[in-house]
Write a structure and sequence with these properties.
The complex is a heterodimer of chains A (646) and B (230).
Chain A (H helix, E strand, L loop, with lengths): L5 E6 L3 E8 L2 E4 L9 E2 L1 E4 L11 E3 L1 H9 L4 E3 L9 H7 L19 E3 L2 E3 L1 H20 L5 E6 L5 H13 L3 E7 H10 L6 E8 L4 E9 L2 E10 L4 H20 L7 H18 L4 E7 L5 E7 H13 L2 H11 L8 E5 L6 H10 L18 H14 L9 E3 L6 E4 L5 E5 L7 E7 L9 E7 L9 E9 L11 E7 L5 E7 L7 E6 L5 H7 L11 H22 L11 H18 L4 H14 L1 H17 L4 H5 L18
Parallel strand pairs in A: 1-10, 10-11, 12-17, 14-18
Antiparallel strand pairs in A: 1-2, 2-3, 2-4, 5-6, 5-7, 8-9, 12-13, 13-14, 15-16, 19-20, 19-22, 21-24, 22-23, 23-26, 24-25
Chain B lengths: L9 E3 L6 E3 L19 H4 L10 H15 L9 H22 L1 H11 L10 H5 L9 H20 L4 H34 L2 H32 L2
Antiparallel strand pairs in B: 1-2
The chains are: A alpha+beta (646), B mainly alpha (230).
Chain lengths: 646, 230
């Protein structure tokens, strides 16, 4: 049976990537714009006049729409994956998500995007579809199977939601891999065969720490810990809060009342943060609505004092992971750094202290790009699963479940049945009986977490064991088998032992989509059989061409156009004519090449446009009305950060 | 309850139809993966039920079997083989987790031989004086008073350093007692592994008592550690 490639996907909070194994090296597949990172931003284009469904754009173009039509754009949707309405409500304080107003408790919450509503897995599916298309364009062949990474500390519902998103995007998710473990795989390819390594993964919105033992190509995770609400966002928020307070105190302007201005200021804060990783100081210089300028120098020393409490929050999970693995800091042979936030020198310093590195003449590993290493590792795991490569045939990843699995017992306490850090797949068998004569149903409540009371843990599912033959109380003996699979997702089966009857069980996830719901959300049939593939590539190439041609047509109306030199304008005109000619052919690669040329020609224009939009936002001249939609208390991370660090 | 199955029961391989015994993970004839056997954790590793195990060897065998059984090796296999790989690997992992830990291993083996091992004591049971080992009655009584006092002081302000020191000393003492129990348990391992039936039964009885004592002590140590907040 001819089988296509398996790709590795890092579905990130801020950026997403797709990678594959090229021979014995994992490489990231660039998008049509040449960039390795696809911002995890999804935008809904304006409603077409003919009443059809509006087009969805993903990535950098969606990011541009964030300034123009913020109410039709969503980002950081990973924070909503697998979460209940109640949990999502608490996120709203920090993020400008707009929930559909007809949401009901127990339902998967939906976000409002323009006129339409989407569940978080659907939004993620659009990002995945973009990555899938990038890979297909790159290979010139369909891609239908993938490995997707998730934070190690993701619970069952968050994992299931990620898998659902894959299915909606037309991808068979062969495996969910934990992000820090994936990073270890990427490093492990060309590293010593034995040793104990720690992976410190501080991303945009989540923190993970994993301790692994490497031996003969086996990557055995010993323990993992983390915090799903800790990341670079928190640092941005600190800088932003200071700037907002100072602007208020010194200039009497409260920018908090102007959400779009806050978004602009956030971009400046992110730029400052990035600058402080390499420079001794960063500067804010921003024109305010009243014409004043807010100018501020932030020395690195001050920055480091400021972020110390945030960084210290990563220490406790590290210590817990070491304790759970029964390993002293001095026994860690290597530390691998993952996530953009690990570029901050103070983070390196903290990690050095936590694992006594320089004292032992060691340095943390930063050789691989921390933004790409997870995707590269996913590609390695994809290669392992494809099972056809010499490079990875000796490699095997043995991961663990990050959270204990328990059953609610009498009095609301939790009876643990699978401990955290158990190697997965893992199983437990429990026996249940009836409390009343003739009882034919037994209800079981499964939870995930480390707390003593079920109410404090994450409710995973409630099961009804049905069809128990009527017997005296206490006589039936129902065996229930709980199995956590290699993706970290729970499966349940049950049997009544006295009568030998299989008890029928109905698994009601506390939160989640049913199979039928997922089926109905599968993105429109863009995935036809292979014979349609060439046709599809052509349609996609033409769509891309149309998008950029339409943007170029509108360009002269934008004030940024005036800033271009006449040479630049001529180049855009020529490239645009060339693309129009190519678009009339049936040659998809030629159309794509012409699109790429036009994209290059207009790059400076796009940058100018972005800058002026940000300035406009801060000065609050035109964006107020649109900005209201972002919500009042906007302290969100903004994906406008440069896609790649210099 | 766990059962020791008769490893001589033959079953037919789903793939090649050659009969083999039920305890095997792979068909000896065609090497195909088999549905999870009803075997105990020791026989998963091809081991006789013993308490003294060669741990490096156990790890080596765990890795060897993982390479062959893991779902990663069956990502593109048929649905049945996928399911069996999942179930077999879960069995392997459960077995390794249990056997590599000396206490879990001892409890497991004794249960396999019909011993009743006390269930995990809930918070209430721990306070039940009848569960306190007789020789510790007085000390435990005093310790519980001190713990109560400590918790109250914590709730209202800074705890008394003297009380803190006294609790730390108690913790060291109980830690030491735990070590003693572990040594005593190990001493019984050999008796169980190598003795005749009578020796085994005596060892089993001693170990059940030691495990009860151990569970009591470790709960106590956990309480003290939590109260001390270290």
């Amino acid at each position: 049976m001819a089988e296509g490639r398996v790709v590795g996907i890092d579905l990130g909070t801020t950026n997403s990537l797709v990678a594959y194994m090229q021979g014995d090296t994992p490489v990231v597949i660039p998008g049509v714009d040449g960039s390795n990172l696809v911002p995890s931003v999804v935008a809904l284009d304006p409603m077409p006049a003919n009443g059809g469904r509006p087009t969805i754009t993903v990535g950098n173009s969606a990011r541009r729409a964030l300034i123009e039509t913020p109410e039709r754009v969503i980002y950081s949707v990973k924070r909503l994956m697998g979460r209940s309405l109640e949990e999502v409500r608490s996120e709203l304080k920090f993020f400008p998500f707009r929930l559909a107003n007809d949401a009901e408790a127990g339902e998967v919450p939906r976000v409002q995007l323009g006129e339409l509503r989407f569940t978080p897995p659907e939004i993620s599916a659009y990002v995945l579809r973009q990555l899938k298309r990038n890979a297909e364009r790159f290979f010139g062949a369909p891609v239908t199977q993938a490995v997707i990474t998730v934070p190690a500390y993701f619970n069952d519902a968050q994992r299931q939601a990620t898998k659902d998103a894959g299915r909606m995007a037309g991808l068979e998710v062969l495996r969910l891999v934990n992000e820090p473990t994936a990073a270890a795989l990427a490093y492990g390819l060309d590293r010593a065969k034995e040793g104990t390594i720690a992976v410190y993964d501080l991303g945009g919105g989540t923190f993970d720490i994993s301790i692994l033992k490497l031996r003969d190509g086996i990557f055995e995770v010993q323990s993992t810990n983390g915090d799903t609400h800790l990341g670079g966002d928190d640092i941005d928020n600190l800088l932003l809060a200071i700037a907002l307070d100072e602007i208020h105190a010194e200039h009497g302007v409260d920018l908090r009342a102007h959400p779009s201005a806050v978004q602009g200021l956030r971009k400046a804060a992110i730029d400052a943060k990035i600058q402080l990783s390499t420079e001794p100081a960063a500067h804010f210089d921003i024109e305010l609505p009243n014409g004043d300028r807010y100018q501020r120098e932030i020395p690195r020393e001050v920055f480091e004092q400021l972020i110390e409490p945030v960084l210290q929050r990563t220490a406790a999970p590290c210590k817990q992971a070491l304790a759970d693995a029964g390993i002293a800091p001095g026994q860690i042979d290597e530390v691998v750094m993952v996530g953009g936030s690990t570029r901050i020198p103070a983070v390196l310093q903290l990690v050095d202290e936590l694992f006594h590195l320089s004292a032992r003449g060691k340095k943390p590993h930063t050789e691989l790009n921390p933004d790409e290493v997870v995707a590269l590792g996913a590609a390695v795991q994809a290669d392992i699963l494809a099972g056809a490569s010499k490079t990875t045939e000796e490699m095997l990843l043995l991961d663990v479940t990050p959270l204990s699995l328990g059953i609610e017992a009498l009095g609301g306490t939790v009876a643990r049945i699978i401990q955290r850090n158990s190697t997965i797949p893992a199983s437990a068998t429990e026996h249940f009986t009836t409390g009343v004569d003739g009882q034919t149903n037994v209800a079981i409540h499964v939870v995930q977490g480390e707390r003593e009371l079920a109410a404090d843990c994450r409710s995973l599912a409630r099961f009804d064991l049905k069809g128990i033959p009527p017997m005296s109380a206490g006589l039936p003996r129902i065996e229930v088998r709980f199995l956590i699979d290699a993706d970290g997702i729970l499966q349940v089966s049950a049997r009544e032992q006295r009568s030998g009857k299989e008890a029928q069980i109905e698994v009601k996830p506390t939160y989640g989509l049913t199979d039928e719901q997922v089926e109905s959300m599968i993105l429109e049939s863009f995935d036809h059989a292979e014979e349609d593939f060439a046709k599809r590539l052509l349609i996609e190439a033409r769509n891309e061409a149309d998008t950029i041609l339409a943007a170029v047509d509108r360009a002269p109306q934008n004030p940024a156009w005036q800033q271009l030199t006449s040479d630049e304008k001529t180049a855009i005109g020529l490239a645009s004519d060339y693309l129009k000619k190519a678009r009339r052919t049936e040659d998809a690669p030629a159309i794509r090449e012409a699109t790429l040329i036009l994209d290059h020609a207009t790059r400076r224009f796009a940058e100018l446009m972005m800058e002026s939009a940000v300035t406009t936002a801060i000065r609050g001249k035109t964006m107020d009305a649109a900005g209201e939609e972002l919500g009042d208390e906007v302290t969100a991370p903004h994906p406008m950060a440069p896609a790649e660090f210099k | 309850m766990l059962k020791v199955i008769d490893s001589a029961v033959p079953v037919a391989c789903w793939s090649c139809s050659v009969a083999h015994n039920d305890a095997t993970l792979f068909c000896p004839h065609c090497s195909k993966i088999q549905p999870p056997p009803g075997s105990d954790f020791f026989s998963v590793f091809g081991l006789a039920p013993r308490l003294n195990l060669d741990l490096p060897e156990l790890e080596h065998e765990f890795h060897r079997l993982s390479r062959k059984l893991h779902p990663d090796r069956f990502a593109r296999a048929g649905e049945n083989e996928k399911q069996w790989s999942l179930a077999d690997t879960a069995l392997l992992n459960d077995a390794y987790r249990t056997l590599k830990d000396p206490i879990h291993r001892t409890e497991y083996l004794l249960k396999l031989h019909g011993a009743e091992i006390g269930e995990e004591h809930s918070g209430k049971d721990r306070k039940d004086p009848s569960r306190v080992p007789a020789d510790l009655l007085e000390e435990v009584f005093e310790l519980n008073m001190q713990l109560e006092e400590m918790r109250m002081e914590r709730a209202t302000g800074e705890p008394d350093p003297e009380l803190q020191a006294s609790l730390e000393q108690a913790k060291r003492k109980f830690d030491g007692l735990l070590d003693e129990v572990d040594q005593d348990l190990r001493a019984q391992w050999q008796a169980w592994d190598e003795g005749d039936i009578a020796v085994r039964q005596a060892a089993q009885k001693t170990m059940v008592a030691l495990l009860d004592r151990r569970r009591y002590l470790s709960n106590l140590v956990r309480d003290v550690t939590e109260t001390l907040g270290v």
